[in-house]
């Protein structure tokens, strides 16, 4: 069971509020046995991560402001690496370098991954570091999605500290264009068949009643 995520995030103030609200006993059981050892990713998390085509990444500025960015790409662009690590290629963008600068000052980060159709979400904590293309071109090449038309400028490597599966409550199902195509394609094929059958029947009637 993953315990280090909640153990890392629950401050004494949060525990006190949980006690006031009557939820502390349940959360204490979730923390039981946590000693700071990172939660180890399993096949379940790896499969979920490999299916995602986007996630949200949170870091903190040197002045303490939270900063959240969206990262996207082909499904599986966020890769599970040996050693309880994650990695992804960072593509050329608006060149603000806010996240890169934040991680240089404080490596702590948080990832939020959502499966909208199935109403599942996975939250992760970790320590991130940025590797420039000229520092390790082989690493960046390995993290670049095959055939994806984007320019990779750097790699981000994340040592996972903890993770937590969140409840599906209040997640509105949403579907990608590809997911909708999988549903619509059989219907489109059926409509095409019905139209062909209707045209054939119409032609048959025209042959039987040529003067009408």
Account of the 3D structure:
Residues 42-140 form the Pyridoxamine 5'-phosphate oxidase N-terminal domain. The protein is an alpha+beta fold and 212 residues long. 37% of the residues lie in helices and 28% in strands. It is built from seven helices and seven strands, in the order ααααββββαββαβα. A seven-stranded antiparallel sheet has the order 2-1-5-6-7-4-3.
How do you describe this structure in short?
The protein has 212 residues and is α+β, with helices and mostly antiparallel strands.
- SS strand fraction: 25-35%
Mean pLDDT: 91
* Helix-residue proportion: 25-40%
Assembly annotation: single chain
Number of strands: 7
CATH class of the largest domain: Mainly Beta
Distance separating the two termini:
76 Å
Series of secondary-structure elements, N-terminal to C-terminal: HHHHEEEEHEEHEH
Main structural class? alpha+beta
The CATH architecture of the largest domain can be given as Roll
The Rg value, from CA coordinates, equals 25 Å
CATH topology of the largest domain: Pnp Oxidase, Chain A
| Order of strands across the main sheet | 2-1-5-6-7-4-3
Number of domains as seen in the coordinates: 3
């Amino acid at each position: 069971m993953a315990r280090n995520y909640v153990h890392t995030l629950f401050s004494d103030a949060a525990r006190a509020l949980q006690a006031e609200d009557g939820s502390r006993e349940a959360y204490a059981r979730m923390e039981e046995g946590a000693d700071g050892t990172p939660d180890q990713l399993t096949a379940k998390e790896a499969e979920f991560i490999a299916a995602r085509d986007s996630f949200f990444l949170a870091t903190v500025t040197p002045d303490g402001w939270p900063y959240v960015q969206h990262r996207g790409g082909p499904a599986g662009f966020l890769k599970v690496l040996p050693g309880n690590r994650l990695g992804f290629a960072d593509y050329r963008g608006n060149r603000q370098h806010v996240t890169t600068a934040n991680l240089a000052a404080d490596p702590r980060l948080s990832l939020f991954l959502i499966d909208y159709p199935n109403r599942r979400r996975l939250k992760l904590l970790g320590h991130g570091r940025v590797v420039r293309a000229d520092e390790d071109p082989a690493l960046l090449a390995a993290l670049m999605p095959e055939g994806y038309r984007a320019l990779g400028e750097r790699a981000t490597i994340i040592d996972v500290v903890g993770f937590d599966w969140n409840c599906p409550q209040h997640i509105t199902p949403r579907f990608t264009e590809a997911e909708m195509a999988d549903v619509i394609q059989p219907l489109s094929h059926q409509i095409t068949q019905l139209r062909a059958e209707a045209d054939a029947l119409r032609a048959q009637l025209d042959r039987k009643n040529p003067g009408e």
